[in-house]
């Protein structure tokens, strides 16, 4: 029997048929263009260096919440909804306050939307989120017997829950291999030149084609603090970046 070789974890090279194929959508997996002084892009050492670089930064809110014992799928979905358009420094305390009061669908459904709104007021769009969370808790209690199934389609059937929240909640709570693309993951992976995509949705599609599955959940955990503190939206800290020798710095015009 012919020996099988492990698939490469490098971004596909320009001559690869996989790279040359027409993309299914707006996202593309590309071999970053060669640049003087840059090493070939290899996701293994890149993420290894980032893992070390973010050790001293606070975990992203949902991972921090799971570390405190709030690791059920329902709790993770609640936390993700609260985090939308809200900084972790605000959404994490709000999530803790709400879940300390009502950590199950039954308990949250017993609260009124007005009660929920009072607890989560620091987060962005708190009033709309209060009604949304109450509806999710009520439906989870009535339709699913109080326990959400580990099913992305079910989660995305709730109003306001998209792939980002569904994938991240499933990855943390259920161990599902799913990539969650927020603004940090979208910006950083495109800035590297690892993928080329205009939207987070297209970045998700492109990453699913090239990123080793072992990194699918961890990617968000690493790139949220990395994107907040190092590879920032404006004036990224390229001079002290641990992966500068691999990064193509796509779109960077003003760096520190």
From TrEMBL:
Cited CDD domains: ENDO3c
InterPro entries: DNA_glycosylase, Endouclease-III_FeS-bd_BS, HhH-GPD_domain, HhH_base_excis_C
Cofactor: [4Fe-4S] cluster
Biological process (GO), any one: base-excision repair, AP site formation
GO molecular function, one term: metal ion binding
Residues annotated as domain HhH-GPD: 82-229
Region listing for Disordered, in residue ranges: 1-42
Bias (Basic residues) ranges: 1-11
Keyword Lipid biosynthesis in record: no
Keywords linked to the UniProt accession: DNA damage, DNA repair, Glycosidase, Hydrolase, Iron, Iron-sulfur, Lyase, Metal-binding
Family, as annotated: Belongs to the Nth/MutY family.
Protein name (Swiss-Prot/TrEMBL): DNA lyase
Species this protein is from: Corallococcus macrosporus DSM 14697
């Amino acid at each position: 029997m012919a020996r099988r070789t492990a698939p490469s974890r490098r971004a596909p090279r320009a001559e690869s048929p996989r790279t040359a194929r027409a993309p299914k959508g707006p996202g593309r997996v590309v071999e970053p263009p060669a640049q003087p002084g840059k090493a070939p892009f290899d996701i293994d050492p890149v993420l290894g260096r980032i893992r070390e670089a973010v050790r001293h930064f606070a975990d992203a809110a949902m991972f921090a919440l799971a570390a405190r014992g709030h690791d059920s799928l329902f709790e993770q979905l609640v936390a993700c909804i609260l985090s939308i358009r809200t900084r972790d420094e605000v959404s994490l305390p709000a999530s803790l306050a709400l879940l300390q009061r009502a950590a199950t669908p039954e308990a949250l459904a017993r609260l009124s939307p007005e009660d929920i709104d009072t607890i989560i007021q620091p987060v962005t769009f708190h009033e709309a989120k209060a009604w949304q969370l109450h509806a999710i808790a009520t439906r989870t209690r009535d339709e699913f017997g109080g326990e959400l199934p580990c099913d992305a389609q079910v989660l995305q059937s709730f109003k306001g829950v998209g792939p980002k929240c569904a994938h991240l909640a499933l990855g943390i709570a259920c161990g599902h291999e799913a990539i969650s693309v927020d603004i940090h993951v979208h910006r950083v992976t495109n800035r590297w030149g690892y993928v080329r995509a205009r939207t987070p949705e297209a970045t998700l599609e492109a990453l699913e084609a090239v990123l080793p599955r072992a990194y699918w959940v961890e990617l968000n955990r690493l790139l949220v603090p990395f994107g907040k503190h190092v590879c920032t939206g404006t004036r990224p800290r390229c001079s002290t970046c641990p992966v500068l020798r691999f990064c193509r710095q796509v779109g960077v015009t003003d760096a520190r």
